[in-house]
From TrEMBL:
Annotated metabolic or biological route of this protein: Purine metabolism; 7-cyano-7-deazaguanine biosynthesis
Gene Ontology terms for molecular function: 6-carboxytetrahydropterin synthase activity; metal ion binding
Cofactor note: Binds 1 zinc ion per subunit.
Organism (species): Gimesia aquarii
Catalyzed chemical reaction(s): 7,8-dihydroneopterin 3'-triphosphate + H2O = 6-carboxy-5,6,7,8-tetrahydropterin + triphosphate + acetaldehyde + 2 H(+)
Cofactor(s) required for function per UniProt: Zn(2+)
Gene: queD_1
Binding locations of Zn(2+): 22, 35, 37
Keywords: Lyase, Metal-binding, Zinc
Keyword Zinc: yes
Family statement drawn from the similarity comment of this UniProt entry: Belongs to the PTPS family. QueD subfamily.
Name of the protein in its database record: 6-carboxy-5,6,7,8-tetrahydropterin synthase
Pfam families: PTPS (PF01242)
Amino acid sequence: MNNSAQYKVRVTKDHLVFSAAHFITFNGNICERLHGHNWRVAAELSGPLDENGYVFDFIALRDRLQKTVDSLDHRVLLPMKHHMIEVSEIDEEVQATFEKRRWVFPKEDCILLPIENTTAELIAHWIGLQLMPVIGSYESSQLELLQIEVEENFGQWAICQLTIPQN
């Protein structure tokens, strides 16, 4: 095979979307209003071809990405590591506070993310981390890079590239 060739596989489908609410903070103490988006997700893997001529199995990548996207669908996305947003679970509710503002949601409507802020960039990073177990299970692989793209609003993409550790 040609050693100078570079290979990638990319998965993006009409059903790799989720509708979710969030709010972000910026510039120290500015907090957006709670609002929602119809987010779209794509994943791309880079690496050499394996003995079958694959970079990675499209179906395995698609299925794991779909499972992750489904977990976010019709949820309120809340950051657990924000230094000014306090999120707590109380019985069957989730409470989020920021300065004098307070939101209370049914627990089943929320996903508590281990991130600092619910920006598209950090959501892309979190999604990438969710894909790592299936990527790591692909034994003959020498994958190099995972790229996750999250479209928060039409034409506004955040992209996170993660280097894949070699075993």
